[in-house]
Amino acid sequence: MSVAILGAGISGLSCAITLEKAGITPEIFEKRSCPGDRFVNAEAMFSVLNRPSGDTLDTLSEKYGIVLHPIDEVNKLVIHSKNETGAVEGKIGHTNIRGRHENSFESQLARQVKSEIHFHSTLTCEEAVKNFDHVILATGDGEYAMRQGNYRCDLTCTLKGATVEGTFVTDEPHVWFNYEILPKGYAWVIPFSGSEANVVIAFPDYPQTKIYDLDKMWELFFDLCQRNMNQRFRITDRFEVRNYVMGICQKPQIGNLFYAGNCFGAISPGLGFGQYTSILTGVYAAQAICEVAPYEDLVQHLFENYNHSLALRQFIDKLDDDGFDRIARASNVKLIETINTHVFGSDSNFDLLKWLTPFLSMKR
Q1: H-only helix segments in 248-351
Q2: CATH code for position 304
Q3: Stated pTM of the model
Q4: How many folded domains does the chain comprise?
């Protein structure tokens, strides 16, 4: 059996590890010079967004043999709105590094893979489909699926970020919802360490947001961020992504071609997370090749989770700064703090997005 994996990101490498455990040696083709994205960035995996799993990293390790080490466990998520500051506390997820860094998830997975990775590859999907029994398309975006007419684009988004030096608490990421500065968008600070962090703004490319100057939005937020965190940062690296497509494939498999990672549609339109889904699509594609179950059946719950997340995005779009102020203020109420621990905690299996979707749909 011959298997080609196009892309040495987290979905492609997770697929390779799963195949190897079943005694199948795939060939991995990566167009870049190393695993990972074009830039280094910090991300987070929040358990509440990946139900019915509890602790996502424990699930990946215990159930699928995918072992990943985070930067830290998140014990507090600080929420900043225009006029309030609140927090969700408890063991609610993990932070990690992505991209060209020795401790990134991509680098960790690459060290677990025994199969050869062909870097600087020019192999096309069309060529792979003709020459291999099975092909996993895990190239990191939905471009090819869109060209095939097998991808529904729900929105595009723009991100601008920087790596900064300062003083940080590694188990306390921060998030901002302030539509006066970032209309329909949000921003975050995720520490790499006690002295380095990622600062990012992100917003959907709606007609009302396209009129704003990206550099000006960045300057306003960066100043606000430094004031809120009571320090001045030194920028050591920058990145920018415009019009990044977010959507989901129509069919997870066409013939011998499996769509995985962002080619499948792993990124959540609600808040932009998608690492857990990316990894699962790689694992599921391998399991389908090994005839554990049809790929379409294995990924069905991921389609459902995506649609719940889309409902969340549509609800967030309807909120204003007063609404975010109420949410931040409520998170400091003792009863709400207790509820948050049970709902958002990694030990919980409560599927908040699933239960909220009917309510969020009514609020559109």
Answers
A1: 275-289, 295-298, 300-318, 321-330, 334-344
A2: 3.50.50.60
A3: 0.90
A4: 1
